[in-house]
Specification:
The structure is a homodimer.
Chain A lengths: L19 H8 L12 E5 L9 H7 L9 E5 L9 E7 L6 H15 L4 E5 L3 H5 L3 E3 L2 H5 L12 E2 L6 H13 L4 E6 L1 H16 L5 E6 L17 H22 L3 E6 L6 H10 L3 E2 L2 H6 L4 H17 L5 E6 L7 H16 L14 H9 L2 H9 L14 H18 L9 E6 L1 H4 L5 H19 L5 E6 L9 E6 L4 E6 L2 E6 L9 H15 L21 H12 L1
Parallel strand pairs in A: 3-4, 3-6, 3-7, 7-8, 8-13, 9-11, 9-12, 10-11
Antiparallel strand pairs in A: 1-2, 2-14, 4-5, 13-14, 15-16
Chain lengths: 556, 556
């Protein structure tokens, strides 16, 4: 196996110039929960089960199923030994990833002298191909409190086939790894657990610990209150949304339609709404629960615009989750039918092909803006399928609202001129400098992962709790990954999955939003959070979602 | 004349919730230049002339031409009297506008007891229609250090016709105004000077003072080192660009094409380049000076992408000024010809109409992406003209680069997969919370404007200099607006204009950029400025353009 590795070059050499803010963040020391500041021992909890279908999970993870979650308690001690630890970043970037690595590194430096740390390059592919960089203090230092994943980069490959597991085994044997930390989302943590099971089944000494990463905020449970990156991304998007609100109020003539990153769940949209108080925020989970149509979403927006016009406001802010279309059942049907038709028929200009659509789908297709119709028919992925991800839903909604308002204008029900401005906030937020919360949280997650490996644990996800308290009172532990799992049937086989945490319509964040949105829609309760601060009291603000969920937990 | 005015409602009542950062900015007290902290008197400079065609300017401004610019010096005193002052915001928003108003207000409170201040609503139309709000401490307080123009809003109307001047006269007579402060860009300050001349010619007591506002940074001269808003907007855009750089380096697969607000001049693009070190930044003034074609701009970008591919980089950041197309002479020709053809001929599907294009224009049209061709032919403004402003130049360039790379791929000269991501940063930046510099600069500009009115001056623009020094050492004065003017011939008549300050290819900022861009293009010298900070040393950073221009002035 070719490696071309070693103490490889890294992209931020000491010659790279940092901005003032980057430098000040580099130099900022990070607080630790008190249990990590002196001696500690690891306490096992009760036997665990699974999130669903425990029998199937037990079959899939015969070596790991049922093992207890654990917590770190003061006093006692762990064995004095040096460790060889690998770390990998998996999937899309999230602010704070570098601090998880810093946390692992600093733990090894102070508590496991003589340890070695490897960073696998480019995600899980780096494990399979044994591409790595040996991490030393000089490299790690230059990424402390910095955004992005560029220290070792990331990738979206999965370790799935028997051959791929074999490759992973060879790598961890070759590097003589005591442990591997997988930093990723729901899929990556499922993969981490499969690796832990596989290594244990093959009598390899390598333990595997996961860390919860995703700006989407959809990897969380009781013991893992939030995934890192969500706090920062929402704050960056909210800065921009807040600025647009001031712009809208100042000019008095634009409706800004803001699409926000996050396909599967609408946590980002909900959090940004709680931070900024837009006139409208569409939450995908509610659209799905109410089986709304594209027409009903359009009408909902249009009705508020008309009411606002009467109240004298010809401007506003509307937030839309990136995955909106995926939440509307009729759109899913239409796309399914279109894929079939495109595969087997000719799309003739006269539109006779449309007769093959079911009547509901035909109606929907007819009300879509022409540009969207064309996009659906012309742009395909390599498998010939319609590319839903490419649809700019904010532009689609602007056009649909525009048509509806034209209609109402003719009926004398609307008198203003509607001007929609589309925006998409995505890449700008996922690589920002981590907020103070994400910096501290990630540093604790990293220490926690290293401590779990040091104490010989495997198949756990790093769990830092009590996040509403000052850092020093945060609690530290590991939750069994199997306890987060359920199964899904794919191609006739049961696959383990950690189900994505969707926005709960009965949860505290959505309920707070629902109680206020009527007021926001007609009055302008805009809040401009401003740029993320790293110094002063505003640096310590916790995002609403986490605060409300912690409050609800404390209250219940 | 109907007024419907008085102590009118304002949009940010005390019941409005501010974010933590907004609140902390509200409470932050603002430093003043030392000359404004004790007694001062106004010293006249030498007789002034004009920027060009002094004879014509003298004819256009018989009452004002030749008057001296002035400066404030310590000692002495101004008459004790109360004043009635109006203020108007004109044109697009720029961060800091509210602090100009706060500065005027605070000056009147402390130095001209019993004064009254009126804010004209919705820009110059507010003057003509006598729509105003009487500003009191409660209103003004709620906008201190806040972004946007929403205290009294703005507008783009001009006071041009004799009837409109008459309306303005009636308003200032009705309100018995001693002075009027016009906060705006080059056009608005020209308009301010015309008003000053008109009021003087009609023996009205109302004096008029201008203030330099525009995020575009194209209103500046020796005595007015910068326009407010430029600093903040560039810092907000640079935060986003810096994040995209980290994203690009982390994923290693995207070219981000970022279009930046600012049609006329490329100062914003240049400043953001100096702050972030992109791989490519296109400066419109250079494109125009070198008479570049769209093809040569495309080739320039494509060549660097190919060289980067050889160096192992399949990603990058490219900055484009919003007004790029306006700088390319051949595009201007094509659009002129298209307007003619559209007005007189039929655009037939077969394309026989294309024969009417000159051969160079025909060639250009043929290499344009299909979507841009359609846009040019289909979307017209109310006068039937092609809408250049609607062309998303970042998307156009992505498509053109893509085609060129396809071609080179077939020729074996390029082997990677090119993925372009378009971005437009505009509205997000022009309404952000003002940076510490813009907050302080605007507060001083406001005090300065009020002091000039207090000392009976008219036809001046508020001039705050020595901006590289601590605020206390800033110097304060007024520059005659006629000295900034030249004439343009329009419809057979001479019109006074303040020429926009374009990026000077021999100026220090461009020269610095030009000396570094070769290095940036192939190596990755990215800098991530991070979010604007209001506390700590990074809050005091001055933008590069201003710093370099001040340095060059000091050096020369």
């Amino acid at each position: 196996m070719s490696t071309a590795n070693g103490d490889a070059k890294h992209s931020r050499s000491p010659s790279v110039v940092y901005s003032e803010v980057q430098s000040s963040r580099l130099k900022t020391s990070l607080p630790l929960p008190s249990v990590l500041k002196s001696s500690f021992h690891v306490v096992d909890g009760p036997k665990s089960s699974a999130s669903g279908n425990p029998d199937q999970i037990a079959k899939l993870f015969p070596n790991l199923f049922g093992q207890p979650s654990v917590s770190l308690k003061p006093g006692g001690s762990l064995p004095e030994k040096s460790l060889k630890i690998g770390v990998v970043l998996s999937g899309g970037q999230a602010p704070g990833g570098h601090n998880v690595i810093s946390g692992i590194f600093d733990y090894l430096q102070t508590r496991a002298h003589g340890s070695t740390m490897y960073g696998f390059k480019g995600g899980p592919a780096g494990i399979m191909k044994c591409k790595y960089v040996k991490l030393n203090g000089d490299i790690v230092y230059h990424y402390r409190n910095q955004g992005g994943f560029d220290m070792i980069c990331s990738g979206r490959d999965k370790i799935e086939t028997p051959e791929q597991f074999k490759e992973a085994q060879e790598t961890v044997k070759k590097l003589d790894l005591d442990g591997l930390v997988v930093i990723g989302g729901d899929d990556s943590n499922t993969n981490a657990c499969l690796l832990a099971e596989n290594f244990r089944a093959n009598n390899l000494k390598t333990r595997v610990i996961g860390c919860p990463k995703t700006i989407d905020g959809d990897l969380k449970c009781k013991e893992v209150p939030t995934s890192f990156g969500f706090d920062t991304a929402c704050k960056i998007y909210s800065e921009m949304i807040g600025n647009l609100m001031v712009d809208a109020r100042s000019t008095g003539k634009y409706y800004h339609f803001v699409r926000l990153m996050g396909r599967a769940a609408s946590h980002i949209t909900l959090e940004c709404a709680l931070q900024t108080h837009p006139n409208i925020a569409i939450i995908g989970e509610e659209v799905a629960a109410q089986k709304q149509t594209l027409k009903s979403v359009t009408d909902y927006i249009t009705n508020i615009i008309c009411k606002r016009a009467v109240a004298g406001f010809n401007y506003g802010i509307i937030l839309i989750p990136e995955g909106l279309i995926d939440f509307i059942p009729e759109v899913q049907s239409l796309i399914g039918e279109l894929n079939e038709i495109i595969a087997h028929d000719t799309i003739d200009k006269e539109g006779t092909w449309k007769k093959k659509l079911r009547s509901q789908s035909h109606e929907l297709f007819q009300i879509l803006p022409k540009t969207i119709q064309e996009q659906l028919l012309l742009e395909r992925d390599p498998h010939g399928n319609v590319q839903v991800a490419k649809i700019e839903s904010e532009k689609m909604l602007i056009q649909m609202v525009e048509s509806e308002l034209e209609k109402r204008k003719k009926e004398g029900k609307y008198e203003k001129d509607f001007k929609g401005q589309p925006h998409f906030f995505g890449y700008e937020g996922r690589c920002g400098l981590p907020s103070k919360f994400d910096s501290n949280y990630c540093y604790a997650l990293g220490h926690c992962a290293a401590a779990l490996l040091h104490s010989g644990k495997t198949g756990l996800i790093s769990s830092v709790e009590n996040l509403g308290a000052p850092v020093e009172n945060w609690t530290i532990g590991g939750t069994t990954l199997t306890s987060l799992m359920d199964v899904e049937r794919r191609h006739g086989k049961f696959k383990p999955v950690i189900k994505k945490a969707m926005v709960e319509l009965e949860g505290a964040p959505f309920k707070k939003f629902a109680s206020m949105r009527g007021d926001w829609s007609l009055k302008n309760r805009y809040i401009n959070p401003g740029p993320v601060q790293f110094v002063g009291p505003s640096a310590d603000i916790l995002n609403h979602t986490l605060r409300l969920e912690l409050g609800a937990k404390a209250g219940g």
